[in-house]
Amino acid sequence: xxxxxxxxxxxxxxxxxxxxxxxxxxxxxxxxxxxxxxxxxxxxxxxxxxxxxxxxxxxxxxxxxxxxxxxxxxxxxxxxxxxxxxxxxxxxxxxxxxxxxxxxxxxxxxxxxxxxxxxxxxxxxxxxxxxxxxxxxxxxxxxxxxxxxxxxxxxxxxxxxxxxxxxxxxxxxxxxxxxxxxxxxxxxxxxxxxxxxxxxxxxxxxxxxxxxxxxxxxxxxxxxxxxxxxxxxxxxxxxxxxxxxxxxxxxxxxxxxxxxxxxxxxxxxxxxxxxxxxxxxxxxxxxxxxxxxxxxxxxxxxxxxxxxxxxxxxxxxxxxxxxxxxxxxxxxxxxxxxxxxxxxxxxxxxxxxxxxxxxxxxxxxxxxxxxxxxxxxxxxxxxxxxxxxxxxxx
Length: 394
Ligand SMILES: [Mg+2]
Hints:
Layout: E1 3-8, E2 16-20, E3 32-37, H1 40-44, E4 51-57, E5 63-68, H2 72-79, H3 90-107, H4 115-121, E6 126-131, H5 151-163, E7 166-169, H6 174-181, E8 187-190, E9 195-197, E10 218-220, E11 223-227, H7 234-247, E12 255-258, E13 263-266, H8 275-286, E14 292-297, E15 300-305, H9 311-321, E16 331-337, H10 343-352, E17 356-360, E18 371-373, H11 376-393
Parallel strand pairs: 6-7, 6-16, 7-8, 16-17, 17-18
Antiparallel strand pairs: 1-4, 2-3, 3-5, 4-5, 8-9, 9-11, 10-11, 12-13, 13-15, 14-15
Helix pairs in contact: 5-11, 7-8, 9-10
């Protein structure tokens, strides 16, 4: 079979026959569209565009074109990097960035400047606090094992938990997050919410937990494990972890982290020239595991089971475990996070039409959150202010 690669606009003059999924070609193929032509010239006359097409001649004299959405994963990896300076004058660039930021802030105002509005919305309701960890409570650092939170932040979270049920929702392994936070009175939702555990009964600060979802909770070692919806995936995740460690060890800076129910491949310390090679390796390994899916976050590729479970589902689960129904008017969930995976929780709050989503970001980003904070130090100020407001109102 003859094959060739051309650039072309996939939309013009082509008939879509079917969509298939392949992983055996060298290109970064994720979704592939099979198109059929009788005349190869017809294809080559299509005006050049961004997409790459792999064209193969077939038995009946026509040609099959496989549309390769090349580098979707690589694009996604780049999108998680800081925006690069575009070739423009410094003044023009600064003005344009400034305008964009102003417009974004109007749509997602600072939670500190809108503090009164947020507390007004909580009148007569129970605030439940949800906090992401990396980039929200701790700074983003090169070595994920050293993403420590400050003692001041720990005290702010502890103070918050005195007044409001508080959960840490992270992509990390639950035990790892606990080792950073070290507060027993919190709920911990690790592995993107796939491993949820409440505080021991003696530390629950009087927050009564109702167990409506009997099928999902169990008790171990005197601690309450509330939810582990992906436990059947543990052997598979462990196997993929070992394979990925082996297959990525030749790429300098690549780091595979196991988060128990999911995996992270960190590329913060990988030279950008090697990102493509890393993405290829990861996708090659995953091609043998259709029950696992791949997403990207801030300088990290995330591998998770394909179950319908994410940080948004974890938020809903915890609200229900705390005794609040999905449509409950008596609760005001506040979720603070900085990552793409936090968007699932922001979306749940949007869909509920109640609740406060706060994105931590210094730069404008597409988000379903309503408010913003620039960095962890602002998150700490917000938490301190909220606890102080509650203290004063008692
Ligand atoms: Mg984060």
